[in-house]
Specification:
The structure holds two protein chains of two kinds.
Chain A lengths: L3 H18 L5 H25 L9 E9 L4 E7 L3 H18 L7 H20 L3 H10 L1 H11 L4 H29 L7 H7 L6 H18 L8 H8 L2 H26 L1 H27 L4 H25 L7 H37 L10 H4 L1 H15 L5 H14 L3 H26 L15 H19 L2 H16 L3
Antiparallel strand pairs in A: 1-2
Chain B lengths: L1 H5 L1 H19 L6 H18 L11 E3 L4 E3 L1 H25 L7 H20 L3 H19 L6 H32 L4 H7 L7 H16 L8 H8 L2 H26 L6 H19 L5 H21 L11 H30 L10 H4 L1 H15 L5 H15 L3 H27 L13 H19 L2 H10 L6
Antiparallel strand pairs in B: 1-2
Helix pairs in contact in B: 2-3, 2-5, 3-4, 3-5, 4-5, 4-11, 4-14, 4-19, 4-20, 5-6, 5-11, 6-7, 6-11, 7-9, 7-10, 8-11, 9-11, 10-11, 10-13, 11-13, 11-14, 12-13, 12-18, 13-14, 13-17, 13-18, 14-16, 14-17, 14-19, 14-20, 16-18, 16-19, 17-18, 17-19
The chains are: A mainly alpha, B mainly alpha.
């Protein structure tokens, strides 16, 4: 089945090219083409799951390899394993739901849909690319459409947010480019092939240079994650972005950072990562606690969700640095595997749950109340039963209620990390407690108490919104109850990555 | 006879210039476009001829005419860049002068072709005297071109200012040449190379610094850059575009040949590395506050001269193009030609309809002129160095060369500057795409000519960004500068 991944990757661009020639006043055609493209893309990505051999999730499958720029040594090299495949599905699913949700966007809809389609290709490309130049190209390409999405369809401070987002992530990308070049020039033979470089480990003998290269990669990935203290672009970008933009930003764009840590930084520079793992873990714990505290102080629902992302991505980074800190040691391998698998499940869980949360913020803000102030609501439970039910389910999943997807991930992370970083894991648990507190408090302020009479005429979710949200809510429950197939697959991939550290 | 065939492009250019001069005299004022189109046809012929083996791109590197003139892949590559740039610029000039009242339209076409001749000579001169004559020839033509809008005070200012700065810079450079001649007893770069080792200590450094005043002026390096913003703003926009790409390219060609061939690296690497840092930093920081597109592109061009200089000082050779300094410089100059001429073409199209060069007046152009806005977005992203555009691979190769040569700090300076530059390039995109057009503003007309020009420059920018393989292979050949 060679060519399947290319199809998933390039179909959205093909759809965008079709849209380019559709006249801008043919609204129905524009929406139809966009929806057909992303739906087909999702279906094909599920087809990739069907042919993917889950028993060998530790090896790269569906590999495609064609010379691209031979004179520079760049290859068009794609592949998926148990780590990247779920993230690809997450991307295609959420893009589909974003298009469904954005059905009513009537401001420059043609450009809007084209940008989302290009964004999808960029994001899928990052997860598929196994060549550094290709990886870097997709990494940067995913920046540009998001810049326009925030800048054109965003809230009142959209221009500030868009430029800040672009500047921050460009700093990170270029630092990563330096890291890539340092690795390249120390490799023998020189290559941009990520898999070959991971097996070669060019900087294994030179810790000082390896640490330098690591900080290059670190800056690139940590800004995307985002980790404290590089997180300040996130609240601005998330709050100003249009709903679908926030969803993809939170659900997929942030994962590029953590994916980079697991796929590249950890196996490529294990010595350097191990050397600085404690520093990274401390930053992760600060992200967890600080993100939770700031989220608790928010009166704007969208900002609250945005800061909760800082906390959740902090869990992921705690787990990754815990795994890195025992790289190459015989003991505690089991703990490292658990932590790292937990990190990957958390990436998916956060994608599904926070994606849903941003949709839910959009439901109330975009076409109904036009306010996101937690203090403005109250008693919505009676007026909007479906909305209330789904929101409560998703918020409970986000705070880690057992039986839902978030719990699986967090449990694995803490189980693994505690055996390695005891004190820091305990400190991170404080963040969990605060998260429980602010989500319950938010539920209370939104749905209970007396109904604010301003909202007497508020309508419950319509069909389009249900279509966007029910799949995510169902996934949250399904994987929460029966995570095994997913976790098994991810576990295999993580075992492989950890085995490469020796 | 052999030698004359090696000079085929130069001979065509000379004949073309003289022919156009006559044609200009016999055409009526409203028919001057014929001169421009003939010029383009002639340049296209010269471009084809430059690809012949005897001209050196794929032939044997050698010196001709009593060893004063180099015929090598390096010179041939620069001839291609300069002629290609001139074709694009003449198209831009035809668009610029369309419907404009002027008395010197024909002269601009003729002088541009003569300037191409001078630039081509600069890239291949192997003798200090010939190099000086070529530079002076180019300079005199550029002064006239910069001031060619006689009714426009800013254009007059540009011409005069360019002349005074240029005259001083040339004089200092000639003084530097006299040092080299005095100590080396020869004006031939290749003979000089054998005698440099015997120079008194520090002597070559003094000569290098003096020569840099002239060449640094041509490529607008800090601290020889003060003329750039005023001349760029005042000169007719197509001429500005030509100065920013072709003049810069030939300046770098002369600088590379003189410094690589005649002078030992110890004499100049440290100086140029510092100048690169200053050019990038000053250019980018001052560009941040510019409100006029032409002044902004002027400071951006100073910054890009700094980036290119990274490739000049990255001397460590590499077998692959990744890590080779000269390859990076050549690739960058070609990529910059497409991108920067394109950006100036957009400025011409907007200047024509809005009568303004202010970036603030670009507000909402994505709705008023979608094609212009998409093209400008591509050029601005390319100037920033975002992938899938030409200058990404340019910067990639430059930074790689710096790291390969152990100049990691210079790569870091380049990267920090790239981030700074994003802010003002994004400012143009911001104005065009993220702000609303003024009330009641209609669509902006796009002429067929400007569409052709923009399609060509956008295509060049994107092709070099998506599939640069053939050009990378070409620069890998062309970096072979003749050394004896």
């Amino acid at each position: 089945m060679s060519g399947l991944l290319s199809l998933v990757l390039w179909l959205p661009v093909a759809g965008a090219l079709v849209l380019l020639v559709v006249p801008r006043d043919r609204l129905a055609t524009i929406r139809g083409v966009a929806l057909a493209t992303v739906a087909l893309d999702f279906a094909i990505s599920l087809g990739a799951v069907a042919v993917f051999d889950r028993a060998h999730a530790d090896t790269m499958q569906l590999v495609e390899r064609v010379p691209w720029i031979p004179s520079l040594g760049a290859t068009y090299y794609l592949g998926v394993d148990g780590l990247s495949l779920p993230l690809v599905i997450l991307t295609t699913l959420l893009t589909l739901l974003c298009v469904v949700y954005s059905w009513r966007v009537d401001m420059r809809p043609k450009e809007y849909m084209i940008l989302f389609l290009i964004l999808e290709t960029g994001l899928v490309g990052v997860f598929l690319a196994l060549d550094f130049i290709l990886f870097y190209v997709f990494w940067e390409v995913s920046l540009v459409p998001m810049f326009f999405i925030i800048g054109i369809w965003g809230g009142p401070r959209r221009v500030y947010a868009a430029i800040k987002f672009f500047l921050y992530t460009l700093v990170g990308s270029l630092a990563m480019l330096l890291g890539i070049l340092i690795v390249y020039f120390n490799a023998s033979p020189r290559t941009f092939d990520i898999i070959a470089l991971i097996h070669q480990k060019p900087l294994a003998g030179d810790l000082q240079l390896a640490v330098l290269a690591f900080w290059g990669f670190f800056l690139g990935f940590a800004i995307k994650v985002p980790m404290f203290p590089f997180h300040t672009w996130l609240p601005d970008a998330h709050v100003e972005a249009p709903t679908a933009g926030s969803v993809l930003l939170a659900a997929v764009l942030l994962k590029l950072g953590t994916y980079g840590f697991v796929r590249i930084a950890l196996p490529l520079l294990p010595g350097a990562f191990q050397h600085v793992a404690t520093i990274v873990a401390i930053l992760a714990v600060i992200s967890v606690v600080y993100g939770a505290l700031v989220a608790m102080a928010q009166t704007d629902l969208k900002k609250l969700v945005a800061y909760s992302s800082v906390t959740h991505m902090g869990y992921v980074m705690l787990a990754v640095s815990a795994a890195a800190s025992i790289a190459g040691r015989g003991a505690l391998q089991g703990a490292a595997t658990t932590a790292l698998s937990g990190a990957t499940v958390e990436m998916l869980a956060h994608g599904v749950i926070t994606g849903a949360l941003f949709f839910l913020v959009g439901v109330i803000y975009d076409y109904r109340a036009h306010t996101r102030g937690l203090g403005d609501f109250g008693g919505l439970g009676l007026r909007l039963p479906v909305y209330t039910g789904i929101t409560m389910l998703v918020m409970l999943a986000s705070l880690g209620l057992p039986g839902l997807m978030g719990f699986v991930a967090e449990f694995m992370i803490f189980l693994g990390a505690f055996q390695i970083y005891q004190a820091m894991t305990v400190a991170a648990l404080v963040g969990v407690v605060i998260t429980v507190a602010y989500f319950l408090w938010a539920i209370h302020r939104l749905f209970f108490g007396p109904l604010n009479t301003r909202w007497d005429a508020l309508l419950d979710m319509d069909g389009r919104e249900k279509w966007a949200l029910i799949p995510l809510a169902a996934l949250t429950v399904l994987i929460g109850v029966y995570p095994r197939p997913l976790v098994d697959m991810i576990n295999l991939a993580m075992l492989n990555i950890l085995s490469l550290l020796r | 006879m052999m030698d004359l065939r090696a000079l085929a492009p130069e001979l065509i250019l000379t004949a073309l210039g003289l022919g156009l001069l006559c044609l200009d005299m016999v055409t009526r004022a409203e028919e001057k476009r014929i001169v421009g189109w003939t010029g383009i046809a002639g340049l296209a012929a010269a471009l084809v001829v430059t690809l012949l083996p005897s001209v050196g791109l794929f032939g044997r590197p050698r010196l001709v005419f009593f060893e004063t003139y180099a015929v090598d892949p390096f010179a041939a590559f620069f001839k291609i860049v300069v002629i290609l740039g001139a074709i694009l610029v003449l198209l831009a000039a035809l668009d610029f002068f369309r419907g404009r009242q002027t008395t010197h339209e024909g002269d601009v076409y003729v002088l541009t072709v003569f300037m191409v001749l001078g630039l081509v000579l600069m890239a291949a001169a192997a003798d200090l005297i010939l190099l000086f004559l070529a530079i002076e020839f180019v300079s005199l033509v550029s002064y006239v071109l910069a001031g060619s809008l006689k009714a426009d005070r800013k254009s007059n200012e540009a011409g005069v200012k360019y002349f005074f700065y240029g005259a001083a810079a040339s004089a200092v450079m000639l003084y530097g040449f006299s040092y080299l001649y005095g100590a080396g007893q020869t004006t031939n770069m290749y003979h000089l190379a054998q005698r440099v080792a015997a120079f008194p200590p520090g002597f070559a450094v003094v000569a290098a610094v003096l020569v840099l005043a002239g060449l640094g002026f041509k490529v607008s390096l800090v601290p020889f850059h003060q003329w750039t913003p005023d001349v760029y703003e005042g000169a007719p926009t197509p001429i500005t575009a030509f100065l920013s790409v072709a003049s810069k390219a030939a300046g770098f060609a002369a600088l590379l040949r003189l410094f690589y061939v005649a002078l030992a690296p110890e004499a100049w690497v440290a100086i140029l590395a510092v100048l690169a840092t200053f050019s990038m930093t000053v250019g980018n920081l001052v560009a941040l506050s510019q409100r006029n597109i032409k002044r902004m592109l002027a400071y951006s061009s100073i910054a890009h001269a700094g980036y290119i200089l990274i490739g000049v000082v990255a001397l460590t050779s590499s077998l692959t193009p990744v890590g080779s300094g000269i390859s990076a410089v050549l690739f960058y100059l070609l990529a910059y030609t497409f991108t920067n001429v394109g950006a100036f073409s957009v400025a011409i199209a907007i200047e024509r309809t809005l009568g303004s060069d202010a970036i603030a007046d670009y507000a909402g152009l994505s709705q008023r002129a979608p094609f212009l806005a998409i093209a400008m977005a591509v050029f601005m992203l390319s100037l920033t160095g975002v992938p899938l555009t030409a200058l990404f691979f340019g910067k990639f190769l430059l930074f790689a060369a710096a790291i390969q040569s152990g100049l990691l700090w210079l790569a870091v300076v380049g990267i920090l500057n790239t981030v700074v530059s994003l802010y003002y390039y994004a400012g143009v995109i911001w104005a065009m795409w993220l702000t609303a057009p003024p009330e009641g503003a209609g669509r902006v007309g796009e002429s067929a000519l400007s569409r052709v020009l923009l399609t060509a420059t956008v295509a060049g920018t994107l092709v070099l960004g998506v599939y640069p393989n053939p050009v990378v292979q070409l620069v890998q050949t062309a970096r072979l500068l003749l050394k004896l």
